[in-house]
Design a protein that fits this description.
heterodimer, A: 172 residues, mainly alpha, 6 helices, 0% strand, B: 276 residues, alpha+beta, Thrombin, subunit H, six-stranded antiparallel beta barrel, 30% strand
Chain lengths: 172, 276
């Protein structure tokens, strides 16, 4: 529970940073979505239950401030967590590069699914895809730049609180 | 101690369980969670907004005295022109009251203006929203129109304890009853595409076929007052292109919105005086 709370705290910090970045980017009409980064540390380096709790809570935080059915982000984040968790024993999950790749792929998946879900409600004649692709490109570039820093931050925060990411080792 | 190997499908089983559990969670619990999570982030958004104000304040402190004197002089001129407008407005208001009494017309519902600072902008390809630093604590109500010096900003979509969320007119889901400036025939406006690095555009539908507009001679689009949400005569944008729709009965056009919409720091919420 303590590890989940600490991890959620780091995700809350990330949410604040991303929302502030989007506030400043608004005049340029570009935005950053970092859903994959909310999932990757929990899925690669934490126990399933604790990681999932923090990721689900982060998803609910996104849902609370978005005009989508409540639980949409939470379930998408949970799905991304399941996928990354499923493959984590096949990769060098402590490697930063693996973390970056997992974040980028998770982000791509969440972004596209969310785009299709929200796009269903858009009026006829509105084509949101050029803007969405520009946002996706900006998001992936931003994610590639900040993921190494954020993974270290999450590890350090758990370390400062005297916690290790893993309670038990599940590697096969 | 031997390592335990997980069944490969177990993460997806957990995903299925979470999905199933979420589907059966009662709506009231979801609503409670939504409010709780919104209020959890509210102090963070508010603090960030106040920090930005402080930054602005300190950056203004670096201005020279001459600049401040010039700004003060401009402000005095503006205030003088607003004083004159206020007097005209008061005289018109009295005239309206007299005519209403004379013709026994029902009184037109008024609005209370509530100026609010923008705490957060959330503009992406899916939605365009502003969060402002006033909520139930200032009596803001859902559906209230929001304006700025350039016209319509949008309408209040959610009201929370200390923050309100506004759907911008550039948001694809927003629809407003409109009319061309100087015309009384109603038409429909809806938010359109929001290209990256470019100005937002809206769509005007059911435009009369005798209307024309081009980038060199745009037509001002204003609220019609129909629907009862927005007062009539507020600027929505400018129609810069009109084409005959496929059925040939109307025209459809592109509406250029005010580029300042993306840089707003302060808006005015028009809170209806009567609940209906």
């Amino acid at each position: 529970m303590r590890r989940s709370s600490l991890l959620f705290l780091t995700l809350l910090v990330l949410w604040v940073l991303i929302s502030q970045a989007n506030h400043e980017l608004a005049p340029l009409r570009i935005s950053v979505f970092a859903g994959g980064l909310f999932v990757v540390f929990a899925a690669l380096r934490m126990d399933r239950g604790e990681g999932l709790t923090a990721v689900f809570a982060a998803g609910l935080l996104h849902d609370a401030v978005s005009p989508v059915p409540f639980g949409t982000h939470a379930l998408l984040f949970t799905a991304a967590h399941a996928f990354v968790y499923h493959v984590r024993h096949r990769v060098h999950r402590e490697e930063t590069l693996v973390g970056v790749l997992a974040a980028l792929l998770s982000n791509l998946g969440i972004f596209l699914v969310l785009s299709f879900l929200v796009g269903r409600d858009l009026p006829v004649g509105v084509d949101p895809w050029p803007r969405l692709f520009a946002d996706l490109l900006a998001s992936q570039l931003a994610l590639a730049a900040i993921t190494p820093w954020f993974l270290v931050l999450q590890r350090r925060v758990l370390g400062w609180a005297g916690q290790t990411p893993f309670r038990t080792e599940h590697r096969a | 101690m031997p390592h335990r190997r997980l069944h490969p499908g177990r993460p997806f089983l957990v995903l299925g369980l979470v999905l199933g559990a979420w589907l059966v969670v009662p709506t009231i619990v979801k609503r409670f969670l939504r409010i709780s999570f919104f209020e959890l982030q509210a102090p963070v958004s508010l603090s960030a907004s106040y920090v930005r104000d402080l930054q602005d304040y300190w950056s203004l402190r670096t201005r020279s005295t001459n600049e401040l004197i010039a700004a003060g002089r401009d402000l005095v001129r503006l205030n003088a022109s607003y004083e004159a407008t206020l007097q005209q407005s008061e005289s018109l208001r009295q005239q309206v009251t007299r005519l209403e009494a004379l013709l026994r017309l029902p009184a037109v519902g008024g609005y209370r203006s509530e100026v609010a600072r923008v705490a957060r902008r959330d503009f992406n390809g899916w939605w365009q929203r502003l969060t402002v630093r006033k909520g139930r604590n200032y009596g803001i109500t859902v559906g209230s129109p929001v304006i700025f010096s350039g016209g319509i900003v949008g309408k209040v979509a959610e009201v929370n304890a200390t923050l309100s969320v506004i759907d911008l007119i550039s948001s694809p889901g927003v629809r407003i009853a409109a009319t061309l400036d100087g015309d009384t025939r109603p038409l429909s406006y809806q938010g359109g595409e929001n290209p990256a690095f470019g100005p937002a555009v809206g769509i005007a539908e059911y435009v009369p076929t005798d209307a024309s507009a081009s980038p060199t001679s745009p037509k001002r689009l204003v609220t019609s007052g129909l629907g009862g949400v927005f007062p009539p005569g507020l600027t929505i944008g400018e129609i810069v292109r009109l084409e005959t729709s496929t059925d040939g009965l109307f025209k459809t056009g592109e509406v250029r919105l005010d580029p300042r919409l993306t840089e707003l720091n302060e808006v005015t919420i028009l809170v209806p005086l009567s609940p209906n």
